[in-house]
Amino acid sequence: MNMRILRLNCAGLPVGWVSREQAAVLYVKEQVAWTLGTETTRMLGGINRNGRRSSITLAPIIACEGRVGVPGVVPPLSNDVLFRRDGYSCMYCGQVFTRTELTRDHVVPRVQGGRDVWTNVVAACARCNHRKGGRTPEQAGMELLAVPFEPNLYEYMYLANHRICGDQMEYLQARFGGQRNWQAA
Ligand SMILES: [Zn+2]
């Protein structure tokens, strides 16, 4: 029901997820340049003058004209997306936790000049984060289970939406960087 539509720019770069209503507006304004995917949804509109209800068929992926910025070279860092990147597991003990049990750990701690960037942050349970304290993994004698990385735009779009249809997944996945295999997780 709440399936969102993947909006691209005309060059095929993901711009973001839009609601079906927002997508319908883009269709009506004739800003949709091309579409992808067969898993369409139909949206009913108003009753027109000859008494028929109008409807719009929405494709799961729409490329639109108009100047809308893509999220940028570096996707914004947030705990939601970070924890999803790491499969909701602590990158030190490997156990899976709920969102509220996880914390953002700076691999090189901030007190030692570590930056708050994708390549320096991992999901960690409160216990491991506390144990590590203001030390690097080496200093704390703790092993990092996976190297943190910055998701590319397509990975970011995947990680930022929990409900993705097959067509959308196919489009995004073909452009994943291959640094992590979320399908297997
Ligand atoms: Zn842990």
Provide key terms for this protein:
single chain; 185 residues; alpha+beta; DNA Binding (I), subunit A; 2 domains; 6 helices; binds zinc ion
Task: Tell me what the structure shows.
- This protein has about 180 residues and is an alpha+beta fold.
- The chain folds into 2 domains: about 5-70 and about 155-175, no CATH class; about 80-140, DNA Binding (I), subunit A (Orthogonal Bundle).
- Helices cover about 25% and strands about 25% of the residues.
- The chain contains 6 helices and 8 strands, in the order ββαββββαββαααα.
- The chain has helices at about 20-30, 80-85, 125-130, 135-140, 155-160, 165-175, and strands at about 5-10, 15-20, 30-35, 40-45, 55-60, 60-65, 100-105, 120-125.
- The strands form 3 sheets. A 4-stranded mixed beta sheet has the order 2-1-6-3.
- It is elongated and about 75 Å long.
- The mean pLDDT is about 90.
- Zinc ion binds next to β8 and α3.
Strand content: 15-25%
- The low-confidence parts are none
- Count the DSSP helices: 6
Class per helix and strand makeup: alpha+beta
Q: How many beta-strand elements?
A: 8
Q: Helical percent range?
A: 10-25%
Rounded mean pLDDT is 92
Oligomeric state:
single chain
Distance between the termini: 25 Å
Number of domains: 2
What spatial order of strands do you see in the largest sheet?
A: 2-1-6-3
Each distinct ligand: zinc ion
For the largest beta-sheet, the strand count, sense and barrel status come to: 4 strands, mixed
Shape type: elongated
